[in-house]
Amino acid sequence: MRVLYYFSMTGNGDKVASLLEKSGIAVRKVENLKPFPKSKFLSIMAGGFAAGIKKKEKLKDYDKNIEGFDEVIIGSPIWNSRFSTPINTVLNDLDLRGKKVSFVLYSGSGEGPKAIERINKEYSGSKITIIKEPKNNEQLESLLENV
Ligand SMILES: Cc1cc2nc3c(=O)[nH]c(=O)nc-3n(C[C@H](O)[C@H](O)[C@H](O)COP(=O)(O)O)c2cc1C
């Protein structure tokens, strides 16, 4: 059994999650306690800065029970080359020792080198799938077959 924990600010992660859910993966979305700024410019400035200092957001309550799942998939947008700050919280909350862990990252155009660096250091051997703008990506379904 597999479970996806993910965050999405502008819907790309939601698209990924709905397709993965159709393939039988359990899905848990996390949400920020305090909403992010509505303006795109401000959300990129604030989110990019916060990701740069590895901030952990306060999240709305969510189900952290991963007993019974043998694989945990983490879904995050790339922010400033890194994980989004809500996912920093998830990675801190969940005890992933002994679990198979894999990552689905969605980005504008980049490859998220800092996120990849962190995965290779802290979750070495994990499978990483990077998808550019899933909402507009015609290869989305075939890319998700590898998750
Ligand atoms: C705060 C912030 C920082 C971002 N930084 C990057 C980046 O460094 N590289 C990149 O390719 N895309 C970056 N993006 C674009 C998002 O990763 C991309 O649009 C992603 O698909 C958004 O997922 P979502 O719609 O599920 O929130 C950034 C977006 C935001 C809001």
For this entry, give a set of tags.
alpha/beta, binds flavin mononucleotide, Rossmann fold, 147 residues, single chain, six-stranded mixed β-sheet
Q: Rg from C-alpha positions? A: 14 Å
What string gives the helices and strands in order? EHEHEEHEHEH
**Low-pLDDT runs:** none
User: Domains counted in the coordinates: how many?
Assistant: 1
Category from helices, strands and their pairing: alpha/beta
Number of helices: 5
Architecture overview:
The longest helix is centred in the N-terminal third of the chain and has 13 residues, at 40-52. The chain has 147 residues and is an alpha/beta fold. It has one domain (2-144): Flavodoxin domain (Rossmann fold). The model has no long low-confidence stretch (mean pLDDT 97). The protein has five helices and six strands, in the order βαβαββαβαβα. 33% of the residues lie in helices and 23% in strands. The chain has helices spanning 12-22, 40-52, 85-93, 113-122, 140-144, and strands at 2-6, 26-29, 71-79, 82-83, 100-107, 127-132. Strands 1, 2, 3, 4, 5 and 6 form a six-stranded mixed beta sheet that branches. Helix 1 (12-22) links the parallel strand 1 (2-6) and strand 2. Flavin mononucleotide (FMN) binds next to helix 1, helix 2, strand 3 and strand 5. Residues 8-13, 43-44, 47-48, 77-81, 106-110, 133 line the site of flavin mononucleotide.
